[in-house]
Design a protein that fits this description.
Blueprint lengths: L6 H50 L5 H4 L7 H5 L5 H5 L3 H5 L6 H21 L11 H15 L4 H22 L5 H31 L2 H13 L5 H10 L1 H12 L5 H4 L5 H9 L13 H13 L1 E4 L7 H14 L4 E6 L4 H11 L4 E3 L5 H11 L1 E6 L16 E4 L11 H12 L2 E5 L8 H11 L1 H6 L2 H5 L2 H7 L4 E2 L3 H4 L6 E8 L3 H12 L3 H6 L9 H15 L4 E5 L2 H11 L3 E5 L5 H13 L5 E5 H4 L10 E4 L6 H11 L8 E8 L3 H20 L16 H17 L4
Parallel strand pairs: 1-6, 1-7, 2-4, 2-5, 3-4, 5-6, 8-13, 9-11, 9-12, 10-11, 12-13
């Protein structure tokens, strides 16, 4: 073994180790400094938030701390109104007030400090776009460095920690091997340790080269040190990447949701087993909220389970995280089954949130896609209707089957249910996703459980649900995990924006072609609703509203067009409020909103986007649907802001309905280009900070450009 490394070889190895060690230490120092900067800025924001809370606590609450023994009349007469007023004075200043002695002054001040400590321990920090003060801006700037380093930052940090720990132990032990004389004086045990350490370092260097560790660490340092050029840039980036900022803030601040609720009220033994489950992020390109990571671990640990999180909490991301973990462990083939209306969303989310390749096994080219998926591996995404028609070799090992909107198979005798059941019998790992609450639908729920764990299904009893949702969750914990928005609200961004991509139906496409040929811009924009019975967008809209109804959430549907709102109203039935249109008086509009807000549980309000997007408070709603993209981003932002404002107690879900290869996609491309140009402009000009409509663009120029591009595309047969 001694002949493997000459002293010259050892010096080369140690020099390479020193270089890697320097790069690693540099990155770790930059990482620690970036997080320390966040903690420092967070401390200021916390202090200010605590001071606002203390200012809102009336003076008389000091008596609660001392069981009513304090006399506060002299302070009230002197103009003291809040606990903060007391804290801003010293005990000596208090005792100078008429009727307040030294001992009373000390007791009063001590009582105020006790409340101050309690507030400091419980104060929560939420970034509010309506409060863009200096402390909040500084916090955003500190967070931005970590956010812009990307979702791989934590993985890079873990790798750097491992490299640093191994080098810190091996390098000192290897140093005697640099010369024969040092080895001679090291003794037999020292020589053995030195040789072993050199082998360890050599192995580590080989691994680091394969992982491109030095490049990763250097690039991460560059990202962490990249300057944030302005306040406006920080706030703009926050609005674009709010989930990343909020998740990082929750992790660094140590403030998260109630643990039992975030873990779905699972029993202690199941919760511990789930938390012990590893979750490899090698093939995942998005960071997870804490409750999402727990959900992915649950799916992996339980092997055959249902994730029933309330709509908007990211069940798709949870499933993708589980698939990515299995891919890292050697799994190659996966299947996702979903309604046709969300197939495109699945394809986009898989390729956006992971490195996995997604294949649409649907439509006229499904045979070619199936063959490619079988040959190369990845995620096959198909529909309930197509599942039993897939020509897949019987010996192909499928690592996991994911069934989205699993309540679609609640009837075990239906054709699609039988197809899913057959697949469940051939795949070891199965994950059902459904946002529909099951607590009061035990028979339907039992049918779903029977696909996964027949023995548990047979044990489910009606009284498990009668005892309440928490008791129900505990009874079905081995197979069912559900969290509501209020369970995990602390980790959620204020607004969850979801782009719902649909393929146009044949009828949609016929109307769209005619509109493009005639150059009818407005008809192009609403062609997807021209034939309601065959409208892909309308089908998805109805599904979103149905799930919101199941969760007793109020919904606002916005469109630029009155006739689109009429189509939506007809599809949703008689219990719809509105529509709010530009022709209504302010009083009439407010009466409609008041009736909608006062309705118990679920309700739907229809509104023209420019009529309902300004001047109304619609915080009773927590689901917003925008029927088509708008030409001005501020119009959509203002419409969403009607629901997302002070008084809103639920996270707002904003769904924008879009069609592929259409005016929608062309419009978003142009808006994205304009946003990038504006971003570059904003970095050079402080004027842009106060120009809300700066990224809005000319309606006429957009219309003309898109009509001409679509006419050329369709003429070339690219549809």
């Amino acid at each position: 073994m001694e002949a493997i490394f000459s002293t010259r070889d050892v010096r080369v190895v140690l020099a390479a180790a020193a270089s890697l060690q320097k790069t690693t230490q540099g990155f770790l120092a930059d990482y620690d400094q970036a997080r320390a900067d966040v903690q420092k800025a967070l401390s200021v924001v916390r202090t200010e938030a605590a001071q606002r809370d203390l200012a809102a606590i009336p003076l008389h609450r000091l008596k609660d701390v001392t069981e009513g023994r304090l006399r506060l009349g002299p302070l009230e007469q002197a103009g003291y109104t809040s606990v903060r007023d007391v804290l801003r004075a010293t005990p000596y200043e208090l005792q100078l007030l008429p009727g307040v002695g030294p001992q009373s002054a000390r007791h009063i001040h001590a009582a105020a400090q006790q409340i101050e400590r309690a507030v400091a321990d419980s104060v929560s920090v939420r970034i509010d776009v309506d409060r863009q003060d200096a402390p909040a801006t500084d916090l955003l700037k500190a967070l931005k460095r970590l956010v812009n380093a990307g979702p791989t930052l934590e993985r890079t940090h873990r790798l750097a920690g491992t490299v640093q720990a191994r080098l810190a132990q091996a390098v000192p032990a290897a140093r005697p091997a640099r010369s024969r004389l040092r080895m001679l004086f090291a003794g037999a045990k020292g020589r053995d340790r030195a040789r072993e350490a050199v082998r360890e370092i050599s192995s580590l260097l080989a691994e680091a080269t394969a992982d491109e560790a030095a490049t990763l660490f250097a690039q991460a340092s560059v990202d962490l040190l990249r300057p944030v050029s302005g306040d406006f840039e920080a706030w703009t980036d926050y609005e674009i990447q709010a989930p990343e900022y909020q998740g990082l803030l929750a992790e660094i601040s140590g403030v998260g949701p109630d643990r039992p609720a975030a873990e779905g009220f699972l029993s202690e033994d199941i919760a511990e087993r789930v938390k012990a489950q590893e979750l490899d992020d090698t093939h995942r390109t998005v960071s997870l909220r804490g409750y999402q990571a727990f959900g992915a671990r649950y799916a992996l640990a339980q092997r055959r389970a249902i994730i029933g999180d309330e709509m908007g909490l990211g069940k798709t991301v949870v499933a993708i995280a589980a698939l990515a973990h299995l891919r890292a462990g050697g799994g190659t083939h996966f299947v996702v089954v979903c309604p046709a209306s969300v197939l495109i969303n699945w394809l986009r989310e898989i390729e956006r949130r992971s490195t996995l390749k997604a294949y649409p096994l649907h439509g006229p080219e499904r045979a070619e896609a199936t063959a490619e998926w079988v040959r190369r591996g990845g995620v096959a995404v198909t529909t309930f209707a197509m599942l039993d028609q897939l020509a897949i070799p019987g010996g192909l090992a499928v690592e996991m089957l994911v069934v989205d909107e699993a309540h679609y198979i609640k009837n075990p005798g239906a054709k699609r249910s039988l197809a899913v059941a057959a697949w469940c019998s051939r795949v070891d790992r199965v994950l059902f996703l459904s946002g529909t609450p099951m607590e009061n639908r035990v028979e339907e729920f039992r049918n779903l459980v029977a696909y996964l764990q027949p023995g548990l299904a047979a044990e489910l009893r009606l009284n498990d649900s009668v005892a309440g949702p928490t008791a129900f969750r505990k009874a079905v914990a081995p197979v069912y995990l559900r969290r509501n928005q209020q369970d995990v609200l602390d980790e959620l961004p204020p607004v969850l924006r979801v782009d719902e991509w649909e393929e146009m139906s044949a009828a949609d496409l016929d109307v769209y072609r005619s509109a493009v040929s005639a150059g009818k811009w407005m008809l192009m924009r609403r062609a997807a609703y021209a034939v309601p019975a065959e409208s892909a967008k309308l089908e998805r809209l109805v599904e979103i509203v149905k799930e919101a109804a199941d969760n007793e959430l109020k919904v606002i549907v916005f469109s630029y067009f009155r006739d689109v709102l009429a189509v939506v109203g007809e599809a949703l039935g008689p219990h719809v409020h509105g529509p709010i249109t530009g022709g209504l008086s302010a009083a009439r509009r407010q009466r409609i909103v008041d009736t909608f807000s006062a309705a118990a549980g679920h309700a739907v309000l229809l509104s023209q986007i420019e009529a309902g997007g300004t001047g109304l408070n619609l915080q009773a709603a927590s689901v917003v649907i925008i029927c088509e993209p708008q030409l001005k981003p501020t119009v959509e932002a203002q419409a969403i802001a009607r629901a997302h404002r002070m008084g809103q107690v639920r996270t707002v879900q904003a769904h924008r309905l879009l069609t592929v290869d259409s005016v929608d996609e062309r419009l978003l491309e142009i808006l994205d280009d304009k946003a990038e140009l504006f971003d570059a402009y904003a970095r050079r000009s402080e004027v842009a900070e106060n120009t809300a409509g700066a990224i809005d663009i000319s309606d006429e120029s957009v219309a003309r450009r898109i009509v001409e591009e679509e006419q050329r595309r369709l003429a070339a047969g690219n549809v």
